[in-house]
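Archive transcription. Copying these from loose printouts into the bound notebook so they stop getting lost. Printout 1 of 2:
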Amino acid sequence: MLNSNSQFFWYAGELVCAASLTLPVDEPGLLYGATVFTTLRVYSQSLEAPLTNWAGHCQRLKRSLRSLDWQAPDWQRVRQGAEALVPYFPVLRITLFPDGREWITGRSLPPNLGDWQRQGIVAWLAESSRFQRSLPIHKTGNYLPTWLARQSAMQKGAQEAILVNQQGDWLETSTGNLWGWLDGEWWTPPLKVGILPGLMRSQLISWLMSQNRTIREEPWCLDLVMEFEAIAYCNSVVEIVPIHGILRRNSQLAYDPFHQGFQQLRGLF
């Protein structure tokens, strides 16, 4: 009988009970990272729950497939695979191959997520453009730069890495979008600087606008960042996580993880 401790996944229309996936040796997804994916958190064990945002995640995949001129999957089969895993996992990753095959895996929430949300985390500023993502507006299987950045951050005792561009502007973390509080408003880097249009970012912007809040989408130069009272990052799995310390070179920036401004963002949940 299946449970969350079982090793199983959905692949190409079938539920597979195994710990490994067999791929051809010439598989582009294996050789070049030629896949697109999205990771979603399932609320109330339902793909229809508003916060799950199933439609938004499917639209993200469809936009990437159209842009890359790849074959669309059987969307009914994708839905079937997700539904098969929903009873067992709160987090699903849906991966699509160029020929339309789907691969869906499940996992648990981060074990320390509650502590991160309450107390914040430490991030490391990856002050090198070599950590920038390729094709930043898409979630492709080639995530090596951000994976390396996060590995470097963890070696330094941090939980996340913050990526920068060649001009030194802060872009996003290795797994999410950035938010900063200044002058009674939330600021977030604009899409035009080359960041992922995160779905949680979009949901938060819509939420804040519905509450008549102003959102400032401006590039994050160091001078601006130094003025922020609070900083956080978001994604569809962790929701909102404050960043209370940022390691940069031989110094550390400190921010308030308990700032009252976080109440605005958390109102969505």
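Printout 2 of 2:
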Amino acid sequence: MSHRHRTPEPTPAVPRVPSSVFEGMFVRALKAEGRLAAGLEALGYDMKRPELDYPIELWQRATALARQEVYPELSEEFAYRQLGRQLVAGFAETFIGRVVAVALPMIGPLRALERIPRYLTMMGRPDLEVTMTPEGERGRRIQFKDRYNRPDLMAGGLEHMLELARAQPRITVEERNPEGYRLLVRW
């Protein structure tokens, strides 16, 4: 009697976040100290001895901690939007981020949006699926297949990125679901 062995479906690898993203958020932008720094260390991120990268779950816990410590008075959505803005501002000060930040004013908002997949890869997220559809001349509807980041964090990050590209963005979270989210971006 022969038994056929079924090969299990490969489990998708859990994304890892490069230390440059942690540096951008917690060292450069938030300048974490006191309770926030101690909390980050307890979670597994030591700002003084960074590892090459970290599991995305650690990133999620670290941003949740920052939301509680830095913006306790804000609504959850607005707090995460502010953290997204901080992330891009701080990442733009890192070695890798400077390369992008210098180019943004020259390429403008539309080309910056078109480069989102490349920028996300630089930030350790080549797994994200991004679909963009035009909404008039100065608008794009962007669908993110992303189970890990909060849509408000992404919206805040894109706001700051577009400001660096010399635009005045208005970003609305149109849809949230367990597999991702959709943003309406206008400038």
